[in-house]
């Protein structure tokens, strides 16, 4: 019963919150419209047959979000100094391969957003059969450091969140 | 409260945050000119799309919250939507460039 009404509870919750934020008020009418949207739109999603997301471990979600925020600020600074030329030593940019254990689609999507949104790293290509990810790094000092960063800092948490 | 009634400290805080974000976006745009290769250039606009965008969005939320006297959070949605959609463009561009370079036999790009 509850499954028929709410096939994707997180999606419904997200739509509800987004609708209320967009309308900018919590009057009865807006809440009602938000409820209708939150209940109706996930029914359309059924037709697309998405994988069930099954987010686990809210603690890991919070830790991931805080790592992301810190890394975005830090790498904004790093890339800005590179662009403005306040860096004396020779800089090398290049491609690296990262072997991923993460296979969950949603986990990979989140990792793609994190990696691409952090200035200095760019998600180029993911090969599903081998699980190998091709990245481009703007300031490539030590290849292994980047692999450890992606695997140790992000992938470990994503494996907890999307088991 | 109308915008002209904003206390001075609030106005200056909002201005400082907006200018900080705009300078980051400008730095990203400068990077498009300064950096030489395509794969280096793609990194530059991310400054404006992440911390630059976040600063401007936060300043906007602060401004509307103070002038309207209630928590105005809808601007934060801009941040969420931009964060989710910008990487799609970046990854498509990178894939296209990698495909082109592989077809042309560029040695810098690793083979498939």
Word description of this protein:
The complex is a heterodimer of chains A (163) and B (112). Chain A is mostly helical and 163 residues long. Chain A has two domains: 2-46, no CATH class; 58-161, no CATH class. Chain A contains six helices and three strands, in the order H-H-H-H-E-H-E-E-H. Chain A has helices at residues 2-5, 9-23, 28-46, 58-83, 105-117, 143-161; strands spanning 94-99, 121-127, 132-137. Chain A has a three-stranded antiparallel beta sheet with strand order 1-3-2. In chain A, helix 2 (9-23) runs antiparallel to helix 3, helix 4 (58-83) packs antiparallel against helix 6 and helix 5 crosses helix 6 (143-161). The longest helix of chain A has 26 residues, at 58-83. The radius of gyration of chain A is 20 Å and the shape is elongated. The two termini of chain A are 26 Å apart. The model of chain A has no long low-confidence stretch (mean pLDDT 86). Chain B is mainly α and 112 residues long. In chain B, helix 1 packs antiparallel against helix 3 (46-68) and helix 3 packs antiparallel against helix 4. The longest helix of chain B is centred in the C-terminal third of the chain and has 30 residues, at 75-104. Chain B is elongated and about 65 Å long. Chains A and B meet through helix 2, helix 4, strand 1, helix 5 and strand 2 of A and helix 1, helix 3 and helix 4 of B. Chain A: One of its GO terms (cellular component) is plasma membrane. Chain A: Belongs to the CPA3 antiporters (TC 2.A.63) subunit E family. Chain A: Keywords: Cell membrane, Membrane, Transmembrane, Transmembrane helix. Chain A: This is Multicomponent K+:H+ antiporter subunit E.
